[in-house]
């Protein structure tokens, strides 16, 4: 861009360099993981089954996604010929503007989708490489060694997320300059759509296997969680990887992408008002600072156990991770303030970044309080197991509902900071919200590392139990696994909050973008959306708000029903195999592959239906009730989506840890009536926290991005009744097909299920 000074151009190239530094650090983490010992032959046999099952699932998922992604590439290319590119694009590219932007938007979509696929697929593969090596370290009774391998294998995914997200957004801006929003929408949409696929599929897979394995293995047969005689045990271990590694990694990656997209859109709008380019350059540099901070923080995790100063020495793995997160946070906040003061001469931007960092940090104590077995909420659930399954489930649901309120309050206070520092400056205020999002996701490397650590430790614990490791090694694995449950719950909260902040930024981008199109069409300023706001006092606004509030419930119903169906098939199959002579006596090996095939089929069946639901409903609302109703629809989706997602994530996490507390020997331990009630509570909570709740994160952002892409078309063609009716009929038929498809029986390779 000609508006950039030499120093600013150097800063942007520096951001690109930092992105590659993050990727090189990821490469080092991968090499450090794979060079370690894989343990005994028995460990490697279990590990090989997990690896083959996970890779087979991801190949099938890719085959499901690619045709839809290919169709959307064509539609995004053609979308530029339906609505004229922005004035900035026409100024920069002249007569070639449509072709350049069409190629740019479609190419950016491919890039976003590709990066999201790489984060999910490569991250999961390195996590699988790590799990058997963690078990091998534990077999040598090396607690810190096992922690180091587990955390570094998870950090690979985090740094891949950081590096690719920063590289993509910055490169697109450097290529397209002020016209970048025309292409960035494609980049964000590609990453978000892939994340939706991976989140839904992985969540259904993992919980269909987990619920089925627990109900038959623990409750009916009384065997341990990872007993090799249970035919669903390998599918359960595979599910941890495709759900919490591949799914969560793609989820947080697209939040990282989307906050950059929305920030640059709002930054370019501010550039038009103020003539200053700082609004665009500043967030990219802050993100680069965050990448460096994540590298520093994640690298220090292994040192805290034996830190020279006893006062700072970590007591366990959880404290070591939190300490390292604090190192990253202090570094980012300090350098952001220095950079803001030197470059922008305005402390407010750095202050809002600090608020975002604080928002992410705040979920550590909140989530720990409501999900830790040492705290009152989980202890109340434990006590309720004395009186049966019903009271156990009710107690868990109550914990989830309460937490959702506190989460909303914390998020509202954080967003309120933008209101306080930019009162009377509406566009600056919207940009301030984006700055909170930039700060919150500045330590994506740490967040993803903590999340991926969970399934790595869980898988290692499963390998240890299946190969009957000695008691001391099992104690190490059980402790690391317990920490993983807490870190997964925390990162789910962070992912949900980041989805809300990112979606709120996109919502404001929606309002800004619609106003720009209205201005281009000659609509007076006082009638533009930025001036009138989204009015729920109008009937169409009320209708949109109500429909938006309903969508997360409809979406979650699809997801939970999918888990229920898949789990039912797994239950029947596991029961059948337990009845095979010799299985219970350790003489006959179960057919693990059959259960893997069932869970894969169950997950793939619902993918397309849920994606169609997320894309078609907002478009139908916009066609039927126009663009202001669509804005109200987005507000409804954000509100109920956040409340519902937190409720499900925390309820599930609390029920899970209550069950584990009993399994540690309390209230009679494993096999007791309290334990059976706890297992039932866990099987109810698992689909909530690992399927429906997390899948709402990308769904919220898909809805916002598709609305942002469609808004200019809806404004420009609002009087073309025939075209809108045809589009509406097509979308309605797609929805009908999706609903019908979800009700079909699951077909499993090798026979009908």
- Binned, the helix content reads over 70%
End-to-end separation in angstroms reads 59 Å
Count of extended strands: 2
- Please outline the major beta sheet: 2 strands, antiparallel
- Could you spell the SSE succession in H and E letters? HHHHHHHHHHHHHHHHHHHHEE
Shape designation = globular
Category from helices, strands and their pairing: mainly alpha
Q: Name the strands of the widest sheet in spatial order.
A: 1-2
What percentage of the residues does DSSP assign to strands (E)?
A: under 5%
Note the total helix count: 20
Average pLDDT works out at: 83
**Oligomer classification:** single chain
Characterize this entry briefly.
The protein is built from 20 helices and 2 strands.
Topology record:
Layout: H1 6-34, H2 41-82, H3 87-93, H4 97-139, H5 143-176, H6 180-220, H7 233-274, H8 278-299, H9 317-344, H10 347-371, H11 376-384, H12 389-421, H13 426-440, H14 444-466, H15 471-520, H16 529-532, H17 539-578, H18 592-663, H19 673-716, H20 721-742, E1 747-748, E2 751-752
Antiparallel strand pairs: 1-2
Characterise this structure.
The chain is mainly α and 753 residues long. The protein has one domain (6-752). It has 20 helices and two strands. The chain has helices spanning 6-34, 41-82, 87-93, 97-139, 143-176, 180-220, 233-274, 278-299, 317-344, 347-371, 376-384, 389-421, 426-440, 444-466, 471-520, 529-532, 539-578, 592-663, 673-716, 721-742; strands at residues 747-748, 751-752. Strands 1-2 form a two-stranded antiparallel sheet. A hairpin with a 2-residue loop joins strand 1 and strand 2 (751-752). Helix 17 (539-578) crosses helix 18 (592-663). The chain is globular, with a radius of gyration of 25 Å. The model has no long low-confidence stretch (mean pLDDT 83).
């Amino acid at each position: 861009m000609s508006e950039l000074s030499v120093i600013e151009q150097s800063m942007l190239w520096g951001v690109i360099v930092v992105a590659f530094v993050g990727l090189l650090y990821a490469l080092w983490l991968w090499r450090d993981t794979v060079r370690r010992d894989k343990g005994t032959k028995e460990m490697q046999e279990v590990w090989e089954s997990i690896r083959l099952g996970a890779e087979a699932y991801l190949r099938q998922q890719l085959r499901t996604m690619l045709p839809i992604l290919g169709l959307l590439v064509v539609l995004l290319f053609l979308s530029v010929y339906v609505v004229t590119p922005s004035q900035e694009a026409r100024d920069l590219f002249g007569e070639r503007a449509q072709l350049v932007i069409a190629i740019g938007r479609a190419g950016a979509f491919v890039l976003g989708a590709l990066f999201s696929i790489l984060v999910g697929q490569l991250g999961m593969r390195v996590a699988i490489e790590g799990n058997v090596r963690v078990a091998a370290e534990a077999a040598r009774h090396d607690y810190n060694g096992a922690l180091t391998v587990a955390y570094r294998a998870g950090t690979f995914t985090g740094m891949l997320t950081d590096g690719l997200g920063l590289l993509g957004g910055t490169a697109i801006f450097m290529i397209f300059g002020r016209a970048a929003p025309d292409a960035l929408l494609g980049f964000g949409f590609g990453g978000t759509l892939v994340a939706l696929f991976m989140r839904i599929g992985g969540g259904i897979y993992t919980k269909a296997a987990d619920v089925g394995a627990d109900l038959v293995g623990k409750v009916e047969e009384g065997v341990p969680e990872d007993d090799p005689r249970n035919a669903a045990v390998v599918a359960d271990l595979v599910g941890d990887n495709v759900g919490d590694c591949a799914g969560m990694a793609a989820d947080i990656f697209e939040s990282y992408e989307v906050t950059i997209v929305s920030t640059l859109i709002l930054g370019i709008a501010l550039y038009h008002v103020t003539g200053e380019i700082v609004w665009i350059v500043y967030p990219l540099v802050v993100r680069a600072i965050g990448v460096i901070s994540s590298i520093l923080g994640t690298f220090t995790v292994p040192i805290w156990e034996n830190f020279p100063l006893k006062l700072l020495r970590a007591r366990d793995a959880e404290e070591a991770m939190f300490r390292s997160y604090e190192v990253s946070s202090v570094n980012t906040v300090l350098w952001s303030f220095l950079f803001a003061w030197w470059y922008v001469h305005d402390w407010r931007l750095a202050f809002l970044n600090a608020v975002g960092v604080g928002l992410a940090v705040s979920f550590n104590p909140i989530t720990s309080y409501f999900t830790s077995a040492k705290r009152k909420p989980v202890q109340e659930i434990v006590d309720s197991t004395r009186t049966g399954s019903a009271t156990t489930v009710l107690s868990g649901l109550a914990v989830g509902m309460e937490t959702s309120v506190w989460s909303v309050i914390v998020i509202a206070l954080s967003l309120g900071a933008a209101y306080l520092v930019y009162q009377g400056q509406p566009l600056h205020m919207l940009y301030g919200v984006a700055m909170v999002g930039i700060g919150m996701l500045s330590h994506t490397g740490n967040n993803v590392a903590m999340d991926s650590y969970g399934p790595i430790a869980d898988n290692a614990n499963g390998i240890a139990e299946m190969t009957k490791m000695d008691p001391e090694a099992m104690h190490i694995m059980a402790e690391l696994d317990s920490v993983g449950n807490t870190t997964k719950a925390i990162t789910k909260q962070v992912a949900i909050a980041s989805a809300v902040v990112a979606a709120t930024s996109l919502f404001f981008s929606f309002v800004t973008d619609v106003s720009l199109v209205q201005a281009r069409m000659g609509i007076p300023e006082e009638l533009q959306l930025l001036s009138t706001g989204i009015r729920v006092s109008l009937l169409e606004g009320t209708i949109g708000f109500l429909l938006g509030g309903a969508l997360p419930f409809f979406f979650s119903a699809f997801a939970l029903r999918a888990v229920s169906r898949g789990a039912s098939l797994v239950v029947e199959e596991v029961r059948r195999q337990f009845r095979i002579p010799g299985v219970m006596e350790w003489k006959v090996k179960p057919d693990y592959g059959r259960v893997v095939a069932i869970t894969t089929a169950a997950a793939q069946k619902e993918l397309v239906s849920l994606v169609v639901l997320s894309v078609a409903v907002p478009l139908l609302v916009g066609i039927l009730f126009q663009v202001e109703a669509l804005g109200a629809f987005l507000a409804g989706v954000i509100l109920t989506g956040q409340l519902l997602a937190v409720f499900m994530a925390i309820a599930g996490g609390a029920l899970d840890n209550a069950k584990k507390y009993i399994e540690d020997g309390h209230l009679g331990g494993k096999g007791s009536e309290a334990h059976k009630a706890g297992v039932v509570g866990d099987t109810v909570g698992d689909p909530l926290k690992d399927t429906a709740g997390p899948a709402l994160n990308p769904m919220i952002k898909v809805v916002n991005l598709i609305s942002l892409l469609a808004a200019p078309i809806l404004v420009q063609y609002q009087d073309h009744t025939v075209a809108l009716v045809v589009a509406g009929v097509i979308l309605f038929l797609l929805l009908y097909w999706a609903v019908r498809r979800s009700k079909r029986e699951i077909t499993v390779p090798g026979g009908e299920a």
